[in-house]
Recover the amino acids of this structure.
């Protein structure tokens, strides 16, 4: 009943969003919470891959930024600041793990030291008032394991770490429960803009919608060209990261940031929401939009930087390495535009700050649509905010919860020893609103196999649980 | 949280833990905790002959050996609890445990850490490239093949040429996977030349020495690995759909570190004396968490060796005086035990265990303390990477537990 039928009998969505990354999921969640002409806005969320948040959204530094170092006056600055408020508030009921660990920008030479007061002033210009300059002694008091040679620092107490995987999943889960259709493995091939509706030809069939939202991340420029524009080019910027063992977590309790340069924020050391320590990212513009391989030179650079930043960290075991691609463009801001004639909204050039800004980008999208006469009001019949399973280390997890185990023995069956993931959590993920379609998807939902042994002990068992479930889903015909 | 108590709590039901449980179960109450669904440890996954020679005096397959050790420990009265994961400490000799039966605390008069060792996975070795499926360790391979009965692929490259690497080759062959290449960074294959030649003949596996895997290739599944010749710097690509990273052991030392127990920076396991005592009173460590790694039967004999020392602690509560550290010198990487303390006696099998990074065919071992030589032995067996080198404990009979560090190296 959600979608009115066209003359041809096909469903026509009010809005089709292309790209189920963090931004597309946030927009789908926002739009599916609205009604137009007395009925819920019908929303389709199209994704080329087999899962939400499975491309550039899954491999970032997972920092919830205050936006203190954005360029004042930009759309990015405004949306990051607003997004930080919105996501911090949403994280609580949705169960998205967030830890307010704070950041320290560390100056290692006189030039960087001289830049700190300017950065503090920039923070104020961005509406962030809680930054504080500290001297070298204070830097080492906060970061006792920092390498030698720090001259001073700037503390940003509200920079936080967050689980980006749970964030994308929470948005998508809520969107689906509100009635949005999540269309996985629907890679966009062609776009035909008609008089009243637009036809999206995908690898898995045609989708028809009145309005189109481009949240295609690394592919946003290509999709924009399918609609006849030539406004920007995405240059994938590869960032390689090294994740250290949980036993390293005691070494560092804040995000350690370098003083930013023109090429991004540089190499940082940060606790992760899963209780590890992360070193990275590198920053390298590449051609291939699918090349998430790591490199010898990247590792050499990180190990070298890490040894200077925090020598004791390099004595710890490495748990994982990975590379992510940021959707950088030639513009110094998000590329957001609405085209009334094509009924087309572009959300492009959303780089690594997109995680923080996601909910504000969604809010902004609604304003832009309203400016085009799509008069919407919030629905009053919405389901409650989904409560996501916690996979953050700082919050109670089933293996340590006597009451939960007493109520359900599967929460006492640890199947992934390093990460202490229980069979109950794997079972819940497989039965969730958006179940995983592969091992990586299961990993992002439960942490299974992301630990120090990388499957030495439990890899085969966890793979079996997933495959049994995929087999059941396929034979019962309900794979999506 | 409910609490269980026993005279002895053993963490890890592998060869070392089960053997200790068997010895101590005769006259003490013993609880053995193991996180897996079945007790037995690593041999359970290793379905080929070669287990039990030194401890049970008969050679069997890994699974049969594991079953036997479990039965012997049970018969001796040990309470073996599987699916019981020790996640942290509760007091000096208590452990927080998660199991399907609840979240409980298990306390002991003594605690024995027998948590073993694992192989470093590809990520810990910082091997760059894509992240396809088909990149395994021996442990994961053996789980897949022996416990899950799945095929790993058709063509495998095995990284490493030590004992465990050949175990991987055997498992691959059983699964119908051809090992197209073994690579090692060392100058020679690590295992006994005799075994290597014999194995090479029997298994027809080419081994390239002084080579390093520098890249894994393949988006979704492995398509190949890039290999660098460390002599010439040249690289080449070897096509394969499985890569097995073998050896490069790291003790499972999480409980050691969570408890603030002294760590030996060389083994990365707990620092123990010849009585297998750690720095925490009443906490002992046995098996491959102490020496990563020796064979299963040697680990098991640690379990036998530790029993009297555990009884003595339970009966008298005596704690050792601080001892002198034993330090490995190049080409040795580690030595175990790594503490000489008064009253600890000789270690298991009266042997000092060492791990080397280089080959020496006629080794002359020397021990020095406080600037003077305290012992020297010429040994008829060779030093080689990838296996334990054993030295008679008498090397240290003139060393002083109250003196400075004792260095053990080669002349």
């Amino acid at each position: 009943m959600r979608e009115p039928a066209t003359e041809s009998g096909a469903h026509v969505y009010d809005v089709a969003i292309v790209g189920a990354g963090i931004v597309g999921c946030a927009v789908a969640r926002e739009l599916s919470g609205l009604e137009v002409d007395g009925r819920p806005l019908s929303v389709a969320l199209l994704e080329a891959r087999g899962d939400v948040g499975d491309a550039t959204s899954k491999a970032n530094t997972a920092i919830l930024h205050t936006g203190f170092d954005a360029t004042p006056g930009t759309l990015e600055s405004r949306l990051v600041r607003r997004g930080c408020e919105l996501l911090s508030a949403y994280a609580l009921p949705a169960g998205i793990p967030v830890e307010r660990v704070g950041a320290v920008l560390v100056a290692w030479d006189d030039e960087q030291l001289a830049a700190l007061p300017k950065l503090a002033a920039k923070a104020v210009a961005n509406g962030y008032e809680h930054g504080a300059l500290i001297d070298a002694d204070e830097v080492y008091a906060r970061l006792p394991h920092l390498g030698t040679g720090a001259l001073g620092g700037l503390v940003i107490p509200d920079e936080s770490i967050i689980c980006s995987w749970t964030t994308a999943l929470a948005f998508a889960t809520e969107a689906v429960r509100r009635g949005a259709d999540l269309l996985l493995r629907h890679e966009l091939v062609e776009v035909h803009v008609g008089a009243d509706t637009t036809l999206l030809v995908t690898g898995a069939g045609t989708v028809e919608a009145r309005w189109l939202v481009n949240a295609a991340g690394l592919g946003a420029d290509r999709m924009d060209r399918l609609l006849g524009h030539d406004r920007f080019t995405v240059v994938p910027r590869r960032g390689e990261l090294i994740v250290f063992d949980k036993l390293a977590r005691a070494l560092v309790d804040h995000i350690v940031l370098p003083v930013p340069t023109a090429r991004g924020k540089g190499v940082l050391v940060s606790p992760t929401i899963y209780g590890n320590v992360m070193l990275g990212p590198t920053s390298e513009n590449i051609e291939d939009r699918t090349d998430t391989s790591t490199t010898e030179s990247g590792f050499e650079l990180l190990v070298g930087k890490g040894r200077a930043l925090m020598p004791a960290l390099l004595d710890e075991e490495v748990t994982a390495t990975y590379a992510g691609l940021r959707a950088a463009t030639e513009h110094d801001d998000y590329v957001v535009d609405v085209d009334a004639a094509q009924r087309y909204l572009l959300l492009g050039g959303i780089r690594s700050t997109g995680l923080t800004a996601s909910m504000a980008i969604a809010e902004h999208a609604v304003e832009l649509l309203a400016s085009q006469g799509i008069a919407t009001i919030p629905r009053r019949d919405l389901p409650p905010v989904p409560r996501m399973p916690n996979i953050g280390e700082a919050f109670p997890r089933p293996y340590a919860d006597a009451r939960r185990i007493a109520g359900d023995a599967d929460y006492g069956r640890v199947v992934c020893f390093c990460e202490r993931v229980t069979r109950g959590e794997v079972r819940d993920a497989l039965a969730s609103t958006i179940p995983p379609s592969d091992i990586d998807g299961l990993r992002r939902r439960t942490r299974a196999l992301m630990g120090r042994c990388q499957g030495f002990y439990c890899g085969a068992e966890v793979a079996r649980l997933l495959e049994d479930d995929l087999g059941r889903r396929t034979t019962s015909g309900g794979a999506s | 949280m409910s609490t269980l108590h026993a005279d002895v709590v053993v963490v890890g039901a592998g060869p070392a833990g089960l053997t200790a449980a068997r010895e101590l179960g005769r006259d003490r109450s013993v609880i053995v905790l193991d996180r897996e669904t079945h007790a037995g440890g690593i041999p359970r996954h290793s379905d080929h002959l070669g287990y039990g020679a030194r401890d049970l005096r008969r050679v069997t397959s890994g699974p049969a050996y594991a079953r036997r050790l479990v039965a012997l420990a049970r018969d001796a009265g040990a309470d073996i609890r599987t699916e019981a994961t020790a996640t942290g400490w509760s007091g000096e000799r208590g452990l927080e445990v998660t199991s399907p039966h609840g979240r409980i605390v298990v306390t002991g008069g003594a605690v024995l850490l027998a948590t073993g060792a694992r192989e470093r996975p590809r990520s810990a070795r910082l091997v760059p490239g894509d992240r396809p499926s088909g990149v395994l360790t021996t442990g994961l391979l053996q789980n897949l093949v022996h416990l899950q009965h799945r095929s790993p692929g058709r063509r495998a490259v095995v990284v490493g040429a030590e004992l465990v690497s050949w175990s991987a080759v055997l498992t691959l062959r059983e699964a119908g996977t051809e090992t197209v290449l073994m690579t090692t960074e060392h100058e020679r294959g690590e295992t006994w030349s005799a075994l290597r030649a014999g194995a090479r003949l029997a298994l027809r596996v080419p081994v390239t020495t002084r080579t390093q895997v520098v890249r894994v290739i393949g988006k979704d599944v492995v398509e190949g690995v890039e290999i660098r010749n460390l002599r010439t710097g040249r690289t080449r690509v070897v096509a394969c759909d499985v890569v097995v990273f073998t050896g490069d052991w790291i003790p499972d030392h999480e409980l050691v570190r969570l408890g603030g127990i002294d760590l030996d920076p060389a083994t990365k396991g707990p620092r123990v004396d010849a009585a297998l005592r750690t720095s925490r009173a009443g906490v002992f460590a046995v098996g491959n968490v102490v020496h990563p790694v020796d064979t299963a039967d040697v680990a098991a004999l640690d379990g036998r060796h530790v029993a009297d020392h555990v009884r003595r602690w339970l009966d008298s509560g005596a704690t050792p005086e601080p001892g002198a550290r034993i330090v490995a010198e190049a080409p040795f990487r580690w030595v175990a035990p790594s503490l000489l303390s008064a009253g600890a006696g000789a270690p298991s099998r009266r042997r000092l265990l060492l791990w080397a990074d280089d080959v020496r065919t006629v080794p002359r071992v020397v021990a020095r303390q406080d600037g003077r030589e305290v012992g020297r032995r010429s040994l008829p067996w060779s030093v080689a990477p990838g296996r334990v080198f054993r030295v008679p404990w008498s090397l240290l009979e003139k060393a002083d537990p109250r003196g400075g560090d004792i260095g053990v190296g080669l002349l």
